[in-house]
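Hello forum,

I keep getting stuck at the same step: I have a sequence, I want structure tokens, and every attempt I make locally crashes halfway through. Rather than fight my setup again tonight, could one of you with a working pipeline run this one for me? It's a single chain of 340 residues.
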Amino acid sequence: MPVFKASPFIIAELSGNHDQSLEKALAMVDAAAECGADAIKIQTYTADSMTLNVSQAEFVINDKGSLWEGRTLYELYQQAMTPYEWHEAIFERAASHGMLAFSSPFDIAAVDFLESLNVPCYKIASFENSDHGLLKRVAQTNKPVILSTGMATQAELAESVEVLKSNGCKDLVLLKCTSHYPADPVDANLATIPHLAELFDCQVGLSDHTAGIGVAVASVVLGASVIEKHFVLDRSEGGVDAEFSLEPQEFSALVKECRRASLALGKVTYGGTAKEQASRKYRRSLYVAKDIEKGELFTSENVRSIRPGHGLAPKYLDMILGKPSKRALKKGCAMKWEYI
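Reply #2:
Ran it on my machine without issues. Output:
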């Protein structure tokens, strides 16, 4: 995907961790840049575009153990939303650091607004990946699309991908995503990543809601070319997604270790790299272990496989044992065929 040059491409998701402070949101952009993030992402919606301002049962979060248990959806989205009037300032701050900046639109009006800001790409959140109307509008921009798989079945994903591709999306990235907050590593099922790549013939990545960086680093080994992780300046200050977000020092480690994992993948190779060739002399080889007289037979006592590696290869020891020496040899002499 041309717009994503680094591999893996690492996105800092600001979400609602700005606590309704533009100053904090801009400080988060600065910190993400300092950490080495390739992009920042926000979310474009209002509480009214997401849900209804009612308090009846289905509009109240009642999941036991949820970070947001007991709150209405409307209240949560009011706290977590990024005001439309902040978008341009956030995007400009990211651009000043050379980072990409884009967003997840949650309705068609949000796409139209983001188009007015000329965003370079779009992200579809996991709970919206079956909203075909939204997918169609995003695809019609002809910009790259990143889509989180979340709870979607294989059939649902196939439908969503078809909607995107049939409406103009040519560059697609699917992110393996576990839509639980925070997610447990046992539910990450990273083995799905190469299967997604094969099934849909596109780039794949990870939208990670687990604590720490281990799951993200592991995903790189399985082919993840895009990593999205929630970001917070200080978890102790709270924030709607703070519990499963990384602080700056952790995000720096994420960038460093994901890059290291990507670099370490390399290619299929045997026989040692160019840098290893100098170490070949420290392999084992056959050496005279005791002084040997001319005509004396080679034995396991006077010829041994030891380091360094200047003598004959150890595999020839059985061929040598019992043969007479052509000359007197001193202890420490590297064995050669001419001595036999």
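The two ends are 63 Å apart (CA to CA). If your local run keeps crashing, start a new thread with the error log.
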